[in-house]
Amino acid sequence: MARYRGNVEAIKGLVRETEVHRDVYIDEEVFQLEMDHVFANTWAYVGHDSQVAKPGDYYGTTIGTQPILMVRHTDGTVKVLHNRCPHKGTRITTESCGNTGKFFPLPLSCLEFQDRRFAARDPPEEGLREHRRRTEPRRPRHEPGQACA
Protein backbone atom coordinates (compact mmCIF):
# COMPACT_ATOMS: atom_id res chain seq x y z
CA MET A 1 0.00 0.00 0.00
CA ALA A 2 1.46 3.35 -1.07
CA ARG A 3 1.24 5.87 1.76
CA TYR A 4 3.49 8.55 0.25
CA ARG A 5 3.67 8.16 -3.54
CA GLY A 6 1.43 10.82 -5.04
CA ASN A 7 0.41 12.10 -1.59
CA VAL A 8 2.07 15.50 -1.23
CA GLU A 9 0.39 16.28 2.10
CA ALA A 10 1.67 13.04 3.65
CA ILE A 11 5.20 13.85 2.48
CA LYS A 12 4.98 17.41 3.83
CA GLY A 13 3.85 15.98 7.15
CA LEU A 14 7.06 14.00 7.55
CA VAL A 15 9.07 17.09 8.48
CA ARG A 16 7.76 19.54 11.07
CA GLU A 17 9.34 22.57 12.67
CA THR A 18 10.51 20.65 15.76
CA GLU A 19 10.66 17.04 14.60
CA VAL A 20 11.21 14.64 11.73
CA HIS A 21 9.07 11.52 11.37
CA ARG A 22 11.00 8.26 11.60
CA ASP A 23 9.71 7.16 8.17
CA VAL A 24 12.15 9.65 6.63
CA TYR A 25 14.95 7.36 7.85
CA ILE A 26 13.48 3.86 7.66
CA ASP A 27 10.56 3.67 5.22
CA GLU A 28 11.38 1.88 1.94
CA GLU A 29 8.78 3.88 0.00
CA VAL A 30 10.28 7.21 1.14
CA PHE A 31 13.73 5.90 0.22
CA GLN A 32 12.55 4.96 -3.30
CA LEU A 33 10.90 8.36 -3.74
CA GLU A 34 14.20 10.02 -2.78
CA MET A 35 16.11 7.84 -5.26
CA ASP A 36 13.60 8.63 -8.04
CA HIS A 37 13.14 12.35 -7.42
CA VAL A 38 16.32 13.55 -5.73
CA PHE A 39 19.32 11.42 -6.72
CA ALA A 40 18.14 10.57 -10.24
CA ASN A 41 17.52 14.20 -11.20
CA THR A 42 20.35 16.21 -9.69
CA TRP A 43 24.11 16.50 -9.82
CA ALA A 44 25.78 14.73 -6.92
CA TYR A 45 29.17 15.49 -5.39
CA VAL A 46 31.43 12.46 -5.85
CA GLY A 47 34.71 13.87 -4.60
CA HIS A 48 37.45 16.44 -5.13
CA ASP A 49 39.92 15.98 -7.97
CA SER A 50 42.78 16.06 -5.43
CA GLN A 51 41.57 12.62 -4.26
CA VAL A 52 42.76 11.23 -7.60
CA ALA A 53 45.98 13.22 -8.04
CA LYS A 54 48.01 10.87 -10.29
CA PRO A 55 47.03 9.03 -13.49
CA GLY A 56 45.47 5.70 -12.52
CA ASP A 57 44.31 6.92 -9.09
CA TYR A 58 40.71 6.06 -8.32
CA TYR A 59 38.20 6.74 -5.58
CA GLY A 60 35.07 4.65 -5.14
CA THR A 61 31.86 5.61 -3.38
CA THR A 62 28.12 5.08 -3.59
CA ILE A 63 25.69 7.75 -4.76
CA GLY A 64 22.15 6.75 -3.90
CA THR A 65 22.19 3.06 -4.74
CA GLN A 66 24.82 3.25 -7.50
CA PRO A 67 28.46 2.28 -6.92
CA ILE A 68 30.61 4.97 -8.57
CA LEU A 69 34.30 5.33 -9.48
CA MET A 70 36.14 8.61 -9.94
CA VAL A 71 39.33 8.00 -11.94
CA ARG A 72 42.27 10.16 -13.05
CA HIS A 73 42.70 9.23 -16.70
CA THR A 74 46.10 8.91 -18.39
CA ASP A 75 45.47 12.22 -20.21
CA GLY A 76 45.05 13.99 -16.83
CA THR A 77 41.27 14.38 -16.97
CA VAL A 78 38.98 13.08 -14.24
CA LYS A 79 36.27 10.63 -15.29
CA VAL A 80 33.35 9.31 -13.24
CA LEU A 81 31.79 5.98 -14.14
CA HIS A 82 29.59 3.30 -12.67
CA ASN A 83 31.61 0.74 -10.73
CA ARG A 84 30.16 -2.09 -12.82
CA CYS A 85 31.73 -4.16 -15.55
CA PRO A 86 29.48 -3.65 -18.58
CA HIS A 87 30.43 -7.14 -19.75
CA LYS A 88 29.76 -9.30 -16.65
CA GLY A 89 27.99 -6.88 -14.29
CA THR A 90 30.50 -7.38 -11.47
CA ARG A 91 32.17 -4.48 -9.71
CA ILE A 92 35.25 -3.18 -11.49
CA THR A 93 36.94 -2.91 -8.10
CA THR A 94 35.89 -3.61 -4.53
CA GLU A 95 38.56 -1.31 -3.09
CA SER A 96 37.50 2.20 -2.11
CA CYS A 97 40.65 3.85 -3.47
CA GLY A 98 44.02 3.10 -5.01
CA ASN A 99 46.01 3.27 -8.22
CA THR A 100 45.27 0.86 -11.02
CA GLY A 101 47.93 2.00 -13.47
CA LYS A 102 46.58 2.17 -17.01
CA PHE A 103 43.87 -0.49 -16.74
CA PHE A 104 41.36 -1.98 -14.31
CA PRO A 105 41.80 -5.76 -14.52
CA LEU A 106 38.29 -7.20 -14.50
CA PRO A 107 37.41 -10.06 -12.18
CA LEU A 108 36.13 -13.29 -13.73
CA SER A 109 37.50 -12.56 -17.19
CA CYS A 110 40.68 -12.03 -19.15
CA LEU A 111 39.73 -8.48 -20.01
CA GLU A 112 40.88 -5.08 -18.86
CA PHE A 113 38.75 -1.96 -18.74
CA GLN A 114 40.06 1.45 -19.75
CA ASP A 115 38.14 4.53 -20.78
CA ARG A 116 34.93 2.57 -21.39
CA ARG A 117 36.72 0.03 -23.61
CA PHE A 118 37.76 -3.58 -23.14
CA ALA A 119 41.18 -4.98 -23.96
CA ALA A 120 42.34 -8.58 -23.80
CA ARG A 121 44.94 -9.42 -21.15
CA ASP A 122 46.83 -12.47 -20.05
CA PRO A 123 45.00 -14.60 -17.50
CA PRO A 124 45.95 -14.06 -13.85
CA GLU A 125 49.07 -15.89 -12.75
CA GLU A 126 47.02 -18.46 -10.86
CA GLY A 127 45.57 -19.35 -14.24
CA LEU A 128 41.98 -18.50 -15.02
CA ARG A 129 41.94 -21.13 -17.77
CA GLU A 130 43.12 -23.79 -15.31
CA HIS A 131 40.47 -22.70 -12.82
CA ARG A 132 37.76 -22.93 -15.48
CA ARG A 133 39.07 -26.33 -16.62
CA ARG A 134 38.70 -27.67 -13.07
CA THR A 135 35.37 -26.04 -12.20
CA GLU A 136 33.25 -25.94 -15.36
CA PRO A 137 31.37 -29.08 -16.38
CA ARG A 138 32.86 -30.88 -19.33
CA ARG A 139 30.88 -30.57 -22.51
CA PRO A 140 30.58 -33.66 -24.66
CA ARG A 141 32.29 -33.37 -28.01
CA HIS A 142 30.28 -34.00 -31.12
CA GLU A 143 31.03 -34.31 -34.79
CA PRO A 144 30.21 -31.48 -37.22
CA GLY A 145 26.68 -31.85 -38.54
CA GLN A 146 25.63 -33.89 -35.51
CA ALA A 147 22.86 -32.39 -33.37
CA CYS A 148 23.92 -31.02 -30.01
CA ALA A 149 22.43 -32.81 -27.01
Euclidean distance between termini CA atoms: 48 Å
Average pLDDT works out at: 76
Strand arrangement, largest sheet?
3-2-1-4
What percentage of the residues does DSSP assign to strands (E)? 15-25%
User: What global shape is seen?
Assistant: elongated
Order of helices and strands: HHHEEEEEEEH
Tell me the number of helical segments per DSSP (H or I, 4 or more residues long): 4
Sheet having the most strands: 4 strands, antiparallel
Proportion of helical residues: 10-25%
Describe the structure.
By secondary structure, the chain is an alpha+beta fold. It has four helices and seven strands. The protein has helices spanning 8-12, 23-26, 28-37, 128-135, and strands at 57-63, 66-72, 78-82, 97-99, 104-105, 111-114, 117-120. The strands form two sheets. A four-stranded antiparallel beta sheet has the order 3-2-1-4, with no helix packed on it. A three-stranded antiparallel beta sheet has the order 5-6-7, with no helix packed on it. Strand 1 and strand 2 form a beta hairpin. The radius of gyration is 23 Å and the shape is elongated. Residues 116-123 and 138-149 have low confidence and may be disordered.
